[in-house]
Specification:
The structure holds three protein chains of three kinds. Chain A is α/β, with parallel strands linked by helices. Chain A has two domains: about 325 residues, 3-Layer(aba) Sandwich (Rossmann fold), CATH 3.40.50.970; about 30 residues. In chain A, helix 7 links the parallel strand 3 and strand 4. Chain B is of the alpha+beta class. Chain B has two domains: about 140 residues, RNA polymerase II/Efflux pump adaptor protein, barrel-sandwich hybrid domain (OB fold (Dihydrolipoamide Acetyltransferase, E2P), Beta Barrel); about 220 residues, Chloramphenicol Acetyltransferase (2-Layer Sandwich), CATH 3.30.559.10. In chain B, about 25% of the residues lie in helices and about 25% in strands. In chain B, a hairpin with a 2-residue loop joins strand 9 and strand 10. In chain C, strand 2, helix 2 and strand 3 form a beta-alpha-beta unit. The longest helix of chain C is centred in the first third of the chain and has 15 residues. Chain C is of the alpha/beta class. Chain C has two domains: about 180 residues, Rossmann fold, CATH 3.40.50.970; about 130 residues, Rossmann fold (3-Layer(aba) Sandwich), CATH 3.40.50.920. Classes of the chains: A alpha/beta, B alpha+beta, C alpha/beta. At the A-C interface, helix 5, helix 6 and helix 7 of A face helix 3, helix 4 and helix 5 of C.
């Protein structure tokens, strides 16, 4: 359901649309760079799905269809801002500089994290739905106490929006005027549960319900997502408090590689959304307005191909971790049960530390 | 040609197998990495599998409609040369030990197959005791170290563990430590003599003889003294008495328990209570019930002499050889007196201070082979007697109680008897009587 | 050496104050801890002195109290969360077990979860339901967490400071029935390490272990036992996770008899863990099986009959009788 309050700057056909609140001032080069981001992330996502189907990953959560929502939001972040993802924000991680192979470690089941969160200012994945929104609010409260001009961006889906933690984070963000932006990707489905079951009202209406602004944006329009997110982050950064952004998009693929969407939704619906493809509309814009050449698109495709093959190699090279690693970093300080466990495992395996 | 095989992976749907729906390639096709190969139908959905290799299809391992098991080969490729084709292991990357495959589940690599027979993969190298960081305690009056069963045993026998030296590892107090405390140096437990080593002298025929390695190849010992007595008595008996034997095994657990509890009695402290005492009581009791057993065959007078007084011979192993002194009127003795009598009899026999009177007049004899760790014997009848009872070791054995196999203290009684005047029925009846006595001694002792 | 006498509540207050003075990144967060000073006055006066930014009156959401403390830890703050009552920690259980306990590991050691979760626990105050729980086992069971409990004012003063300074997340259990009891507090020297057990009374016949409110009960039982000729060695465990197994084992190899006293139900409890662990380490010293004197397998009863549920001198002495009867 799309209503008039949906912020859109680019139609599915690639034509600009005027909006009373927002306008895109991005250059051709910047828009092309977003195109490149989205093509690469889609290609890497498809490669990851293949890898799972070939038995090389335990699981994969695809972003297919949501590329614009994630690239648009990810590129709106300032370098010192901190982002708190769930487990599907591969596009955001890409924007933050997380190496693609590091994004796959959790799905290869060799770690529960994957990258250094402080280095990339992008937190480790959170699988328990909604937990990360509270972390984001707490971090934002820390930013306030440091008097820093930084904002926090946290991601969750339409399904997670029903979780107590998410709603508690709204309460706290409002009560403390925390510099946090809540980015909800409403991709219409929480596995097999449609978003209409998660909320009887448009999700972005919850923002005002809790005491702060809510805005719905066309999640497949990277220009609009970028502008909306940037404004919200800028606002937070200078003490304007939280904003709830609902990126209205669609999960073209399955929830994960273990899901079978044909059991609960009809192909016709998917086809409708395929015609709203985020990459195609940007490509049309680039051709029509910026005279982008075929060769430029081909180069991006080739680059994406190269990155995909590299990702494959990197994943195949991820071996079984040393079993002793299960004891690493459980505690910051020495702990007798950790010492005992290491010893016992070493005696059993006849080696190790 | 370098080949690679793509095995059917788990696609995360909780499946163990899949059905081939559509082949999207054929033998001979040149296939690119990730090119769709096949549509398979799992229990829940139709899934397309992309190629993990770039190469030429050599073989398809199934037809449309076939059910393929997870991990079974699906397609074989020729991946020789050509495009850089990553040699991906087609099986799940989790390197499980041999025999441990995984079955797919919804959210991961799947559940390990635990039905395949597995042998033990690893054995812990270091010591079994997980006592990684126990601080060594300064032994300021530490609790005596032992195990619960031994503690129970000690408590039941009134032994205080505190005073004992533990002969086990790290000062552990063992059951034999407790038994040593109970029985003193004269232990009536089966003593397994150390086998005589080639260099050790031994005792035989009433004297010490040289070691195997140092003594003469042939050594002659004069038949004199006790040796001569034994030889003559045994010969006479063996060639004049038609001897028969019977034996019985008995659950003597209650005898053992009775002795344990008696040992805790203060007024019996100092007495060496053993099963031999109860056997003596049993034999005397049997004699009172069946006087015929307490008899002898007087060939000269052509008479059978039945006596109503038991002079109980106890075969004693002494340095000088086997002697059989007797307790006069053993049938009149109560438990305490019988015990004292046996103790002093054995002591004097060993000390060599037994009087001639001690050595004669035996009517019934008991020989105890238990201390040697054997179960029974068919002894030779001492002259002038009609029966001799041999008692073996009391040892824990499987026994049937209420149709269940349980552990009991079992002992074997054997009897040799003069078959000129004692028949198998009487011998068996007497043995059975003794067995019943040993099986449940307390009421019979009390009855007197 | 400065020593003063104060209640446990005041000792906690002073300890928090010291912590906040020493480190400007120490924050307090909880319901009603600012203006009210906490329902038990533990944080009395602290908001006035340190300000609202450092002593935060939280909205009524336990999961958020802990979840935002996680975010603050990522930002480098050390938050002391107050959960108002033991029975109200459960909404935060997910954040504690799924996030607080695991984020250090999940981030390969990059995130430091240096936060404290203060929990008034145990019963004996005549309260209504959910205000007298002993949930320590749930947290001790979870790798990544540490769990401690103070039994005296002196321990309260020092252990809260040591907990704030520690880089691991600590569930800090405070026996609310002892909040108003006075004790001597040494303001200069800590009595022991945060994870040390302490022998409160030496003895030779039975090792009796407990924590929190049980410690005083065990000491009273020791007096009763002495009058009957039995010598109890009373140990305050102080650290529930990790257990100071060395101290406990030393005592048990001396006495050979073990009793654990706890308000929590015995089922799958810390007492069960102590008995299992020490049986393994001290098997050859055992004169009797380890016994647990704890709550029955029921929800905490209405407080009118809580004295029949909580361990008391009679129940401890009954256990003493039983262990003394064995070999």
């Amino acid at each position: 359901m799309i209503d008039d309050e949906l912020v859109q700057l680019l139609t599915p056909e690639g034509e600009r649309v005027a909006n009373t609140e927002y306008e895109s001032t991005l250059s051709g080069d910047e828009i092309f760079s977003f195109y490149r981001d989205m093509v690469i992330i889609r290609r890497l996502c498809n490669e990851s799905t293949s890898l799972q189907r070939q038995g090389q990953l335990a699981l994969w959560a695809p972003v297919q269809g949501q590329e614009a929502a994630q690239i648009g939001a990810g590129r709106a972040l300032a370098p010192m801002d901190f982002s708190f993802p769930s487990y599907r924000e591969h596009g955001v991680a890409w924007c933050r500089g997380v190496p693609p192979e590091d994004m796959l470690r959790i799905f290869r089941a060799v770690t529960t994290g994957g990258w250094d969160p402080q280095r990339y200012r992008h937190s480790v994945p959170t699988v328990v739905l909604g937990n990360q929104t509270l972390h984001a609010v707490g971090y934002a409260m820390g930013v306030q106490r440091d008097g820093a001009e930084e904002a926090v961006l946290t991601f969750f889906g339409d399904g997670a929006s029903s979780q107590g933690d998410v709603l508690e984070s709204f309460v706290w963000a409002a009560s403390f005027n925390a510099p946090v932006v809540f980015f909800c990707q409403n991709n219409q489905w929480g596995i097999s549960t449609p978003s209409s079951v998660q909320s009887r009202i448009p999700l972005y209406h919850r923002g005002p319900g809790f005491g702060f602004a809510g805005v719905r944006v066309d999640g497949n329009d990277v220009l609009a997502v970028y502008e909306v997110t940037k404004r919200a982050l800028d606002n937070a950064r200078v003490g304007g408090g939280p904003t709830l952004i609902e990126a209205f998009t669609y999960r073209i693929g399955a929830h994960t590689t273990s899901d079978d969407p044909t059991r609960y939704r009809i192909d016709a619906e998917v086809e409708v959304w395929k015609h709203r493809d985020p990459i195609e509309r940007v490509k049309s814009l680039l051709v029509r307005e910026f005279r982008a050449k075929v060769t430029a698109f081909d180069e991006v495709a080739a680059e994406a191909e190269t990155l995909a093959l590299k990702l494959r190699d990197d994943v195949l090279a991820m071996g079984r971790p040393d079993p002793q690693s299960m004891f690493d970093d459980v505690y910051a300080a020495p702990h007798p049960l950790i010492d005992e466990g290491r010893l016992e495992l070493a005696e059993l395996l006849g080696g190790g530390r | 040609m370098s080949e690679a095989v793509f095995h059917l992976p788990d696609v995360g749907e909780g499946l163990v197998e899949a059905e081939i729906v559509t082949w999207k390639v054929a033998v001979g096709d040149v296939v690119a990495l990730n090119q769709p190969l096949i549509d398979i139908e799992t229990a829940k959905a139709t899934v397309e599998l992309p190629s993990p290799y770039a190469g030429t299809v050599v073989a398809l391992h199934g037809e449309v409609g076939d059910i393929i098991l997870v991990d079974a080969p699906l397609i074989t490729f020729d991946v020789t040369g050509g495009a850089p084709s990553p040699v991906a292991p087609a099986t799940p990357p989790v390197e499980a030990p041999v025999g441990e495959g995984r079955q797919a589940v919804l959210i991961g690599y799947g559940v390990a197959d635990e039905d395949a027979p597995v042998t033990r993969q690893r054995r812990r190298r270091a010591s079994a005791e997980v006592v990684a960081t126990t601080t060594v305690v300064a032994p300021r009056a530490m609790a005596p170290r032992s195990t619960p069963p031994v503690r129970l045993y000690a408590k039941q026998h009134g032994v205080d563990l505190g005073g004992l030296h533990g002969s086990g590892r790290d000062g552990l107090i063992t059951r034999s430590d407790v038994e040593r405390a109970l029985h003193g140096p004269d232990v009536t437990l089966p003593v397994i003599s150390p086998s005589v080593g080639a260099d050790r002298p031994s005792h035989f025929a009433g004297r010490d003889i040289e070691a195997w390695s140092s003594g003469p190849l042939e050594e002659r010992i004069p038949v004199r003294g006790v040796l001569r007595s034994m030889a003559e008595a045994m010969t006479t008996s063996a060639f004049s008495v038609p001897r028969a034997a019977a034996w019985v095994r008995v659950d003597a657990t209650r005898t053992v328990e009775l002795l344990d509890s008696l040992r805790r009695q203060e007024r019996l402290a100092g007495l060496r209570l053993s099963p031999l005492t109860i056997v003596a009581m049993a034999l005397c009791d049997a004699a009172r019930h069946y006087p015929g057993i307490n008899s002898c065959f007087d060939a000269d007078a052509a008479e059978v002499v039945v006596r109503r007084r038991v002079n109980l011979g106890i075969a004693a192993n002494t340095d000088r050889g086997l002697v059989v002194p007797s307790i006069k009127g053993a049938d009149t003795l109560d438990l305490v007196s019988m015990t004292s009598a046996i103790n002093s009899l054995v002591d004097t026999a060993r000390a060599g201070t037994a009087t001639p009177a001690d050595m004669i007049g035996t009517t019934l004899t008991i020989t105890n082979v238990g201390p040697f760790g054997v179960d029974g014997a068919v002894p030779i009848l001492p002259p002038g007697t009609g029966a001799i009872v041999c008692v073996g070791q009391v040892a824990k054995s499987p026994w049937v109680v209420d149709d269940q196999v349980v552990v009991r203290h079992v002992v074997e009684l054997s009897m040799a008897f003069d078959h000129r005047h004692i028949d198998g029925a009487l011998a068996s009846t007497v043995l059975r009587h003794m067995a019943d006595y040993l099986h449940d001694p307390a009421p019979r002792i009390i009855a007197g | 050496m400065a020593t003063t006498t104060m209640t446990m509540a005041k000792a906690l207050n002073e300890g928090l104050r010291r912590s906040m003075e020493k480190n400007s990144r120490v924050l307090l967060m909880g319901e009603d801890i600012g203006r009210l000073g906490g329902v038990f006055r533990i944080t009395d006066g602290l908001q006035k002195d340190f300000g609202e930014d450092r002593v935060i009156d939280a909205p009524l959401a336990e999961s958020a109290i802990v979840g935002t403390a996680v975010g603050l830890a990522i930002r480098g703050f050390r938050t002391v969360c107050e959960i108002q009552f033991d029975g109200f920690v459960y909404p935060a259980f997910d954040q504690i077990v799924s996030q607080v306990a695991k984020l250090h590991k999940r981030s390969d050691g990059v995130y430091t979860m240096g936060l404290v979760i203060r929990l008034p626990f145990q019963g004996g105050i005549g309260a209504i339901e959910h205000h007298s729980e002993s949930p320590e086992a749930y947290f001790a069971h979870t790798a990544g967490l540490r769990v401690v409990s103070c039994s005296t004012a002196n321990d309260a003063y020092w252990m809260i400071q040591q907990s704030v300074e520690h880089d691991d997340p600590i569930v800090f259990c405070e026996p609310k029935s002892r909040y108003w009891e006075k004790g001597d507090v040494d303001l200069d020297v800590a009595p022991a390490g945060l994870f040390d057990a302490v022998v409160r009374r030496e003895g030779t016949d039975v090792t009796v272990v407990g924590w929190g409110s049980s410690v005083k009960t065990m000491l009273r039982a020791a007096d009763t036992a002495a009058a009957e000729g039995v010598s109890l060695e009373v140990i305050d465990a102080r650290s529930i996770a990790p257990l100071d197994v060395g101290t406990l084992a030393s005592s048990l190899t001396k006495t050979g008899r073990l009793i654990v006293v706890q308000e929590s139900p015995n089922t799958a409890s810390i007492g069960s863990e102590i008995v299992a662990e020490l049986t393994q380490r001290c098997f050859y010293s055992l004169r009797a099986p380890g016994l647990r004197v704890g709550g029955y397998h029921v929800p905490y009863p209405p407080s009118r009959i809580e004295d029949d549920f909580r361990p008391n001198v009679d129940r401890i002495m009954d256990a003493v009788d039983r262990v003394m009867e064995f070999a």
